[in-house]
Specification:
Distance between the termini: 52 Å
Shape: globular
Radius of gyration: 25 Å
Helix content: 25-40%
CATH topology of the largest domain: Rossmann fold
Bound molecules: glutamine
Number of helices: 18
């Protein structure tokens, strides 16, 4: 993060949403952040979520999509993943607050007697706590704090957040705050018309709470003509030039900053915030986009999980696959497969035989486990490049135990309480855990790369120590390690908590000998991939897959 050079107080940009959810508020906030960073401003970014869960960690991915994990082990909304990928800087727990957390803090303070016998109320106690959450990021070295308000204006649960923003603007001064409102502009096919009314109503909702947007970000599938823009400006109370068209992008979400730049949003925004105009250096970003738009070939990557039907359940994984493909000037065609569809008496091979590589992502529970085992066995036996993430590593270990070591009944204790061969066991630190929320092994841990000549080490650039994020309760059972090693499984990455006792470690990465690429990790490397810095393991997976594809297609051509 660049040091703040301006003498100005920290500026605040709020991003709200209107009409419907799923408009890409997170991508909008992150894209603005990227523009500010490219102008040399130091930016922090956060999301306030009005739901009552303390964090999304206990929510079903079908409900909420992926749970993104930060370095400090916070389980957060997937928008933090967008923030990190766009800004190429890590977030912390201070980048995420939910109503649940805010209420929990207030109630704890009440129980501790901190309110001196006063009546505790939404206004001012909840709103004060929300303002505190915003202030936390506004340290001296920060030029702009971007705060995305989750939900849609008009939602009952969002009201305290909106009221807090109103008060905050009053307290820090209007000159230091701007509001971007993202609204949906529908196109009615039967009438052949673009409609502005829903956006107008959502701005009215904002006005009811005393807020007026400075910028209207229009999510639309069709271009907005001058007349529509004028109408939006007039009735939504923004300047004509502050109506920003955000049409669906053809190639990748990373095109959004460029679209904003073309409409001069960056200059208008810093003008609005009273910051000095600066050149916005888009060279590296534009180059990345050129690569994304002009792939030399495609690569088919299978993603085999159990929340496949939810668009966002594996967001960081699909992103990391895309980044890695772009890093090889390729385009990834991600084939999402429900692991259960590979189970039972079906022609499961037909579903995976055309894949160039397979990824089994993280997950929980028994459903779909056997389907994943089949796919992994196929990769191992047929030399198909494989990357296992967390449960994807645990499943690879079980597959190896069953089919190579012939240990009948081998499994994870997550799947069966007392198996004959417990290959994956509950971590010691988890044995007394009762609560579900925030109790897994979470966040960043170091991993020592112990086999210098392995593909793992090579992928990571032959360094000795790497850091990856985690979210799990179970681990590889070290009692089986010698058997695995004898049969050709290498343990290439270990977490060694106490250097005086290297034998007391936790398996972080496994790799199969004599295979083009079969690497499985207990960690979630996908959380650290960005389009400008694809994650080395994903990059190595795609590299290995494309190498095989190129040689086989050359041979078949020849
Ligand atoms: N369910 C497994 C565990 O808790 C794997 C978790 C994951 O894939 N994130 O260890």
């Amino acid at each position: 993060m660049s040091k703040r050079k301006s003498n100005q107080p920290t500026k605040h940009l709020f991003v709200s949403g209107g009409v419907v959810s799923s408009l890409g508020k997170g991508i909008t906030a992150a894209s603005i952040g990227r523009l500010l960073v490219n102008m040399g401003y130091s930016v922090r970014i956060q999301k306030l979520d009005p739901y009552l869960n303390v964090d999304p960690g206990t929510m079903n991915p079908f409900q909420h999509g992926e749970v993104f994990v930060t370095d400090d082990g916070s389980e957060t909304d997937l928008d933090l993943g967008h923030y990190e990928r766009f800004l190429d800087q890590p977030c912390t727990g201070d980048s995420t607050f939910t109503s649940g957390q805010i209420y929990q803090t207030v109630i704890q303070k009440e129980r501790a007697g901190e309110y001196n016998g006063g009546t505790v109320q939404v206004v001012p106690h909840i709103t004060n706590e929300i303002k505190e959450a915003i202030r936390v990021l506004a340290t001296d070295d920060v030029d702009v704090v971007i705060t995305e308000i989750g939900g849609t204006v008009g939602d009952i649960e969002g009201l305290p957040f909106m009221e807090a923003v109103r008060q905050f603007r009053h307290e820090v001064g209007r000159a230091n705050v701007a509001l971007c409102h993202v609204a949906y502009i529908p196109y009615i096919k039967a009438a052949g018309e673009i409609k502005t009314k829903p956006a107008q109503h959502s701005v009215q909702k904002l006005r009811e709470i005393g807020l007026v947007p400075d910028f209207l970000m229009c999510r639309t599938e069709h271009p907005l003509n001058r007349e529509i823009r004028e109408k939006l400006a007039l009735f939504c109370n923004v300047d004509f030039d502050d109506v920003i068209e955000l049409r669906d992008v053809p190639h990748a979400i990373y095109e959004v900053p460029q679209i904003m730049l073309k409409q001069d949003l960056h200059t208008r925004l810093i003008e609005r915030l009273g910051l000095a105009p600066r050149e916005c250096d888009m060279r590296a970003w534009d180059l990345m986009l050129r690569h994304i738009r002009n792939p030399k070939d495609t690569i088919r990557v299978g993603l085999i999980g159990k929340y496949i039907n939810h668009q966002d359940a594996y967001k960081s994984v699909t992103e990391a696959i895309d980044h890695a493909a772009w890093g090889h000037l390729l385009k990834a065609e991600i084939v999402r497969l429900e692991s259960e569809s590979l189970e039972g008496d079906v022609d499961w091979k037909a579903q995976i035989k055309d894949l160039d590589a397979i990824v089994v992502p993280g997950g929980f529970g028994q459903r779909g486990f056997e389907g994943k085992l089949r796919a992994i066995q196929y990769c191992r036996e047929q030399g198909v490049p494989y990357l296992g993430l967390c449960l994807g590593m645990q499943t690879a270990a079980v597959e190896f135990a069953r089919n190579v070591l012939k240990l009948e009944g081998a499994t994870s204790v997550e799947m069966e309480a007392k198996p004959t061969h417990p290959i994956i066991v509950l971590m010691e630190s988890q044995k007394d855990v009762v609560d579900l929320g925030g109790t897994m092994r979470l966040g960043t841990y170091p991993c020592t790369l112990v086999r210098k000549t392995s593909k793992t080490s090579k992928a990571y650039g032959n360094v000795e120590l790497v850091h990856e994020r985690h979210r799990h309760r179970f681990e590889f059972n070290l009692a089986y390690k010698p058997l695995f090693e004898e049969a050709g499984m290498m343990f290439t990455g270990l977490f060694i908590p106490d250097p005086a006792h290297p034998e007391r470690h936790l398996v972080e990465i496994m790799e199969l000998k004599d295979h083009p690429f079969f690497v499985a990790t207990q960690a979630h490397p996908e959380f650290q991939s960005s389009p400008v810095k694809p994650h080395p393991l994903f990059k190595a997976l795609i590299g290995a897959a494309y190498k095989i594809r190129s040689t086989t297609s050359n041979t078949s051509k020849g």
